[in-house]
Design a protein that fits this description.
By secondary structure, the protein is mostly helical. It has one domain (5-70). The protein is 81% helix and 0% strand. It has 2 helices and no strands.
Length: 79
């Protein structure tokens, strides 16, 4: 199923969903945490790091799936 039209469609859908989640988190978190002052700012920074860590993990999983399609070697799927 590597590099089929269905695979590209699923990949593009995941990109849109991931972008939307990151945008919503970055939009609402400052407004929600603003009343907490300095503690809210620190929580915002921690949550921003966590969101970007999740994005990077998704990129790494995608890269390994892509390598498994290109190399023809059997690699375990991360689910």
């Amino acid at each position: 199923m590597c590099f089929s039209i269905e695979w590209i469609k699923d990949f593009l859908i995941w990109l849109v969903v991931l972008g939307a989640v990151v945008a919503v988190v970055r939009l609402f978190l400052p407004r929600v945490l603003a009343p907490f002052g300095e503690a809210g700012a620190m929580v915002l920074q921690v949550l921003t790091i966590i969101v970007w860590a999740i994005v990077l993990i998704a990129i790494i999983v995608f890269a390994f799936q892509l390598l498994s399609c290109l190399g023809g070697v059997s690699m375990p799927r991360l689910r």
